[in-house]
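Q: What would this chain look like folded?
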Amino acid sequence: MSQKIDYLISPKWIAPVIPRSCVLEDYSVAVSHNTVSKILPTHEALRIFRGTPNISLPGQLLTPGFINVHAHGAMSLLRGIADDRNMMDWLNNWIWPIEAKLVDPNFVHDGTQLAGVEMIMGGTTTVADNYFFPDASSSAFASLGMRAQIGIPIIKYANNWARDEKDHLAKCVAILDQQQDNPLQSHSLSPHAPYSVSDEGFANVAELADKHNLKVQLHLHETSQEIKDSLDGFGLRPLTRIENLGILNERLQAIHLTQLDSDEIDRLAQNKVHIGHCPESNMKLGSGICPIGDLLAKNINVAIGTDGSASNNDLDMLQEVRTASFLSKAVTKDATQISAEDCLEMITLNGAKFLGLEQKIGSIEVGKLADLTAIDMSSIALKPVYSPVSQLIYNCTSANISNVWINGKQILQNGKLVGFKMPELERKVEKWKEKIISLASKKA
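A: My prediction, written as structure tokens:
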């Protein structure tokens, strides 16, 4: 007698992440409701679950869904508008002035939806996003059925969402007081950076984080200029300053960290801080290199983020983590640094730990939610396949992603978004492009 499940997924290989370095060949994943209910040899699965829908994926690898721990989704509308500029020039003279003219709930919704589509098509099932008008970001991700941590921005500068730091904090409190009814979403506090948040602002963030048990995502030690300005203005390096203000703890999601000394690495480890590594954005803006080999050696959790498309210029997690691996190998002159297995963990399980969701997602295990990504390795350009995990990390890109499930629901089927009206989004993006080009042409 056959047992009841919703469907089977039967790929050539499964890389469950837990246990580490395990690859299952000719196994199937049984999904019931939104949960992985069994993992078993395909021939047994077809017998036990006779008559159940079976999604057969010959020549494909099934992994946990990828987790992007740092993005600014709405900035996908600014992709390529101010390339080849140093970071503070890029921010102060291009990005922020354009945002001041155009950013509103519609801009954020459309740009975030554009980013979400790109991420899902690239195998990403979960993102930690940070931008103004967070309710609009939340709506955009919800329209796609995507899992998201929605960062509530806190910054001392005026913008189209809030007048000043106090207004940001007031809006933050108002959002936190609302009932959260989307099980795929959570909130975090997102103070922008040490140079854009006051001591009082950080103290308020620490209090709110403690009261609501929230993660705090912060750009930190991103550039050498940030360190210099902090020493000049406060007599302290930024990490020490935020430590004194109660921010350096296990709730902190520290992003970038290209400027670290050995004592700071020790303090990150002691305080169980989670690190979001964004190598391509850091390289493109000339910010520096995060020493992830040293961080991992101290058992610090390191996950991968793409940053926004305005400084990357894509949201491809496979390319991002490959860059992380190659960059670490080159800097340390050690080819064993950041292996393919390390890379797969950084974009799955480490990302789940970063978000505090490791009991629910990040690996393919019985009882965990069915957030899954399938990668097609049948192309002649990817043959021969000796190790599917190595092939995934060192050969594949978002173009090889075939199918995606989030919370048990298939969102991407054979490379196509299920039930999504792509032409409508494309028309909106073209309209925003015209407005942005008009503003940029006046600056050129």
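The two ends are 71 Å apart (CA to CA).
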